[in-house]
Amino acid sequence: MKALLNQQNRAPLAFAAMGLLLVGVGMGQSWPFALAILNLCLISAVMSLGVNIQWGYAGLLNLGVMGFTALGGLAAVLVSEAPVLEAWSVGGQGMAVSFILVIITIVLSILVYRNMVASWQRRLALAGLYIGAYFVINYFYRPAVYAIESVNPATSGFLGGMGMPVIFSWFLGGVMAAGVAWVVGKITLGLRSDYLAIATLGISEIIIAVLKNEDWLARGVKNVAGLDRPVPFELDLQATPWFVDMVQSLFSAHLAELADAQRVDTLHQLVIQSSSIFVKLCYTGLFSVVLVSVLLLSMKALNSPWGRMMRAIRDNEEAANAMGKNVVRQHLQVFVLGSAVVGIAGAMLVTIDGQFTPTAYQPLRFTFLVWLMVIIGGSGNNLGAVFGGFFIWFMWIEAEPLSIAFMDLITTGMDQASDLRQHLLKSAPHMRLFIMGLVLLLTMRFMPKGIIPEETRLHSV
């Protein structure tokens, strides 16, 4: 048994067990549900890889994961939604002027900072610039916002997007997250690790607060529903002759045993179920391509001289500094790369949901889950991060039904109307967080470096 669990065998055994768990859900619950879990596991694995790039490669403690995820979700809205022409006509000019003024303010502040020596005069000049810019920009910005949000507020009330295929948002989500990460990194990466964690968490809250309150951008808490999708709709498939013929041919032997009236009804049910499975398999194919691409690039980067340098900086910053390495610059690179991957995952998540909901991004709750994926899978190991994404998300989804089944089992001997039994059954869903904490404790106790630790990657990947 110990030989089977050595580092060489952990990765294949872990992924084989994960496959059996998903098959078990398909056989015990339903195949559409198992595929839905699989698709979310694929997205979680991409997100886990992004955090692993930051923490596993460079030791950067980023608690702003949900902020970059939300930026990816915003990209899905900006790409796939059609532009609201009326909103652009009444407020587009004011927004354009405001944006230009913001750019001018940034350029002027850079010029002042670089061309004046550090003194009270420079601080006074910058303060005057920012205060003046605030009032000038608001002169154009506020009326534009009011005009845009007044255009059919029940159904639109925002500028819309570019009306392009949503799959382009996966690239834009990465670019937007990388751009914001560069700005955040320039400000925060000189901080100590604990201060960096607090700063990134605060910045994540700021990003989400902006998305919740600026209705002109993405409708705020009103949400954006009915987003474009890169795969067919189930109802469209059910009305497509080739799909119906395919289902009929696949189940021809079963249908031949039924009477005519029953055959029609059964075929209709099979078409509905098959359309759901077909759509989810399409998503699985797209998400798998992204995951495999990110995984291969991550492995190549980690095994390159750049990757070895990052691990050297992670293990001993002082020694790396003494060797002439620019630690802050390298940290900025890896922070931007990891955030870009998280942004891609955020755009994929909104694509599969078909809806952008800013209130769903809860930094403390879901950042904890993503970090669980990295820690339990094995930080510093790309395969470990992928497995952690699969395993933790699977447990997060299945913890509730497993808890209810467990409570039902241990209370079987009680009276069905017992208050204690009813209380235990109603409380079962709240065991989810207890189960996640238990998984973390057991892993840290028996596998402190994760299920697939970094040494496994060094020998087998």
Count the beta strands. 2
Radius of gyration: 26 Å
How would you characterize the largest beta sheet?
Answer: 2 strands, antiparallel
Strand order of the largest sheet: 1-2
Order of helical and strand elements: HHHHHHHHEHHHHHHHEHHHHH
The structure class reads mainly alpha
Strand content: under 5%
| Low-pLDDT runs | 456-461
Number of helical segments with 4 or more residues? 20
Helical fraction equals: over 70%
Envelope shape? globular
Mean pLDDT: 88
> N-to-C terminal Cα separation, in Å?
23 Å
How would you explain this protein's 3D organization?
By secondary structure, the chain is mostly helical. Helix content is 77%, strand content 1%. The chain has a two-stranded antiparallel sheet. Helix 2 (31-58) runs antiparallel to helix 15 (327-353). The two termini are 23 Å apart. 37% of the residues are buried.
Short overview:
The chain contains 20 helices and two strands.
Break the fold down into its secondary structure elements and pairings:
Blueprint: H1 7-28, H2 31-58, H3 65-80, H4 85-115, H5 120-149, H6 168-188, H7 193-213, H8 215-218, E1 224-225, H9 234-238, H10 241-250, H11 252-256, H12 260-302, H13 305-315, H14 317-322, H15 327-353, E2 355-356, H16 363-377, H17 382-410, H18 419-427, H19 431-446, H20 454-460
Antiparallel strand pairs: 1-2
Helix pairs in contact: 1-2, 1-17, 1-20, 2-12, 2-15, 2-16, 2-17, 3-6, 3-7, 3-15, 4-5, 6-15, 10-12, 16-17, 17-19
